[in-house]
């Protein structure tokens, strides 16, 4: 029988529970390797693509002489990823797992192809936005399909394995991106992904044969009545709200108009979800109680992690003058910690004798605390490390958390900080996903998994954009003060043309100014990086408090039950 195909005898003529049990047994009996290969190859390419872009975006922006717009390279992908990811959960429930995955592959491949021909940051960002439409679906549909072919107890282990694949892609993306951009150029990086994603589509078409009782017969899947269940209006208004927040924070446009636009979009979203949507993209009831707290922690953790993923390569390249290839080696280690954290958490969940839901919440608290320690360590190390000036780099003695640029210790500590952030994030994702699988019926798992990825995506798009915007805005003010303020460098006369060139192209710093001025201006860059850490640290503290409340609420509800 074909992918997700309804039985020859309609479900209403049979006992729904017995049919669901029959299909569940069938799905559990499916050979896992072909299915997982089909799912995880796409996830691997998606994760590889993400860290490649994080590593090369500064170089791409410099090539277009638009360094001040680099945040849109990352944000455009994450924005559409956020908007469309939850829709794939519903799409997979009304058209089948296979069709939803093939749709995701199509948009991802199209976006990669268009990226090859970009001639500006705006065109690059638009192509990445198309890519993001598919990227969100690849991850969400893969996670949903894995839940279909395993038990709840096994789900943590399989998520751990999935994160190994995801982490391996992240691990290789930085070095591969750095190597290729230094040899054949960034356009070829995206071109080579197109045939690979086409091969993923072939495997998906061949191997995804999951059966589900709640999916309509083939003849009814693409009718207007069925497709209208997708909450297009809710998703569109959610995009309006997120775009409004991003434009308020990252542009000089009229704040009153943007704020009004955002508030109207938010009210429209609430009204749509409350009164008009047949099946909401975000059921408001999920914002209550433990599920609401869990959602908030997921947003906060994603904000922290993606802010660090896209901030760290810029620090290595701009302040410490590392090549893109060498930067890729440094971002490799946090990617490895994603895989390690996933396996450790999945194994712990599989073998625990505690209540599974309660244990998941304990892991969430531990994970967000680990991220806070990583952020604090990164802040202290960056604050105490001198920028790399070149051949004339300072070689002063190393004191407590005070390092010269050529010291190995700051590199070890900063990489360790990144590993702690990534390790905590991977553990939190596994624990959150398992708690979802354990708490809902099979027919609701796809939708709720899509919503879980929605929270993850909202955190990632806000974390990436706002972290880079805070850095860029702080840098703009700091450089102006350093070049033209009362405490400017008297040894060199700066011009406004040099200032605007420096804002547009960070590589202009080392190619144009004398060594003494480079050292002086790099302190402004370092200070801007430190300022960009403060929101993440504050949100990590909020996450710890929220996790503690989550555990308390869960304990209280369990006591009431008994």
Describe this structure in words.
- With 562 residues, the protein is mainly α.
- The chain folds into 2 domains: 11-231 and 278-561, Growth Hormone, Chain: A (Up-down Bundle); 232-277.
- The chain is 77% helix and 0% strand.
- It has helices spanning 16-29, 32-63, 71-95, 97-115, 121-148, 152-181, 186-191, 193-207, 224-227, 232-250, 255-276, 289-319, 324-330, 332-351, 356-383, 409-439, 442-484, 496-504, 508-512, 515-561.
- α3 (71-95) packs antiparallel against α17 (442-484), α12 packs antiparallel against α20 (515-561) and α15 (356-383) packs antiparallel against α20.
- The longest helix is centred in the last third of the chain and has 47 residues, at 515-561.
- The protein starts with 15 loop residues before the first helix and ends with a helix.
- 52% of the residues are buried.
Count, helices: 20
CATH superfamily of the largest domain: MFS general substrate transporter like domains
Low-confidence stretches: 392-399
In CATH's first tier, which class of the largest domain applies? Mainly Alpha
* Series of H and E elements: HHHHHHHHHHHHHHHHHHHH
The radius of gyration over CA amounts to 24 Å
Q: How much helix, percentage-wise, in residues?
A: over 70%
CATH architecture of the largest domain: Up-down Bundle
The multimeric state of the shown protein is single chain
Instruction: Report on the biggest sheet.
Output: none
N-to-C span: 45 Å
Mean pLDDT: 83
The assigned structural class equals mainly alpha
The total beta strand count reads 0
CATH topology of the largest domain: Growth Hormone, Chain: A
Number of folding domains?
2
Shape: globular
Strand residues, percent: under 5%
């Amino acid at each position: 029988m074909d992918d997700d195909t309804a039985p020859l005898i309609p479900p209403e003529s049979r006992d729904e529970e017995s049919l669901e049990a029959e299909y569940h047994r069938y799905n559990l009996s499916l050979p896992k390797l072909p299915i997982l290969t089909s799912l995880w190859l796409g996830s691997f390419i998606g994760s590889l693509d993400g860290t490649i872009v994080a590593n090369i975006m500064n170089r791409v922006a410099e090539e277009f002489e638009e360094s001040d717009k680099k945040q849109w390279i990352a944000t455009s992908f994450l924005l559409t990823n956020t908007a469309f990811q939850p829709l794939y959960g519903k799409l997979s429930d009304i058209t089948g797992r296979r069709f939803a995955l093939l749709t995701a592959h199509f948009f991802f491949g199209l976006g990669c192809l268009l990226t090859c021909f970009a001639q500006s940051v705006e065109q690059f960002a638009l192509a990445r936005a198309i890519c993001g439409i598919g990227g969100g679906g690849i991850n969400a549909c893969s996670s949903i399909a894995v839940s279909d072919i395993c038990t709840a107890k096994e789900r943590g282990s399989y998520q751990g394995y999935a994160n190994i694949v995801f982490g391996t892609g992240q691990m290789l993306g930085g070095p591969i991106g750095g190597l290729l951009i230094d040899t054949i150029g960034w356009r070829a990086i995206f071109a080579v992904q197109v045939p690979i994603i086409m091969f993923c589509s072939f495997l998906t078409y061949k191997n995804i044969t999951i059966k589900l009782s709640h999916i309509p017969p083939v003849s009814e899947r693409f009718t207007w009545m069925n497709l209208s269940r997708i909450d297009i209006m809710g998703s569109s208004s959610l995009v309006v709200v997120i775009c409004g927040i991003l434009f308020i924070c990252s542009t000089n446009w009229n704040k009153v108009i943007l704020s009004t636009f955002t508030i109207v979009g938010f009210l429209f979203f609430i009204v749509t979800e409350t009164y008009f949507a047949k099946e909401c993209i975000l059921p408001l009831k999920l914002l209550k109680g433990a599920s609401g707290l869990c959602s908030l922690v997921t947003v906060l953790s994603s904000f922290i992690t993606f802010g660090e993923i896209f901030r760290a390569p810029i620090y290595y390249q701009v302040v410490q003058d590392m090549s893109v290839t060498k930067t890729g080696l440094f971002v490799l280690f946090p990617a490895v910690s994603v895989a390690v954290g996933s396996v450790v958490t999945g194994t712990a969940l599989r073998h625990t004798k505690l209540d599974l839901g309660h244990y998941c919440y304990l892991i969430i608290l531990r994970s967000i605390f680990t991220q806070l320690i990583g952020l604090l360590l990164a802040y202290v190390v960056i604050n105490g490390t001198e920028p790399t000036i070149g051949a004339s780099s300072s070689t002063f003695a190393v004191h407590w958390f005070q390092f010269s640029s050529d010291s190995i210790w700051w590199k070890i500590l900063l990489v360790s900080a990144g590993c702690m952030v990534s390790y905590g994030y991977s553990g939190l994702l596994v624990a959150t996903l398992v708690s979802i699988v354990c708490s809902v019926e099979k027919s609701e798992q796809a939708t709720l998994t899509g919503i879980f990825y929605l929270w993850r995506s909202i955190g990632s798009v806000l974390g990436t954009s706002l972290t880079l915007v805070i850095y860029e805005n702080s840098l703009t003010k700091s450089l102006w003060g350093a070049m033209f303020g009362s405490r400017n460098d008297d040894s060199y006369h700066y011009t406004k043309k040099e200032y605007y060139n420096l804002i547009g192209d960070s590589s202009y710093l080392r190619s144009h100014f004398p060594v003494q001025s480079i050292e002086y201006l790099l302190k402004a860059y370092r200070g801007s990086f430190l300022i960009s850490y403060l929101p993440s640290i504050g949100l990590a503290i909020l996450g710890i408090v929220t996790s503690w409340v989550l555990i308390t609420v869960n304990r209280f509800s369990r006591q009431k039950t008994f």
